[in-house]
Amino acid sequence: KEFLVEISGTTVTITCPLTEESITWRSAETQLDNKETKYVIENHDSAPANISCSSGEGAKTHAMYLNARVCANCEELDALAVTGIITADLLITFGVLILVYYFGRYRKGRAGTSAGSRPRGQKMQRPPPVPNPDYEPIRKGQREVYAGLEPRAF
User: Where are the transmembrane segments (predicted)?
Assistant: First the structure.
């Protein structure tokens, strides 16, 4: 069996796994006043503590290390509220993405109607680039142009 720890605000409630009527609680080798199965810590300061419970002298002792973080102004959320928040966030994010996509698409279509742009008629084919005479390929019958370019000896 295990301890049951419940946290609400700054109150921590610990339930001992023992089922006997008289239970002795200890915290850092100090015996506590409570003799019940539940030990309630009011205004817990979030400091770690070693807590144990036993049913009497020489009986089985259960010990635990309590490291509970508490706060006075915290709000508890159930699973349904967390699911709703995450779903709403995803829907809003996808909505913004869709709006940006559509406004971006229409803006791109209007760019051609501005004053400084050319009319968009049929695409004209560009003529091939003018060949550079310094890099013409060697053709048959034109070897004399390159006759002076003989390999040099190193």
Answer: 79-103
Q: Which residue has the tokens 């810590």?
A: 41
Q: What average pLDDT is seen over the chain?
A: 78
Residue 16 lies in a domain: yes
Distance from C-alpha of 9 to C-alpha of 125, rounded to nearest angstrom: 76
Q: Which amino acid is at 142?
A: Q
- Domain for residue 95, yes or no? yes
Q: What is the pTM of this model?
A: 0.48
Cα 27 from Cα 60, distance rounded (Å): 16
Domain boundary among 46, 66, 86: 66
| CB-based burial label for 3 (10 Å; 0-12, 13-18, 19+) | middle
DSSP bridge partners of 86:
none
Sign, CA torsion 9/48/62/2: positive
Residue 99 lies in domain = 77-109
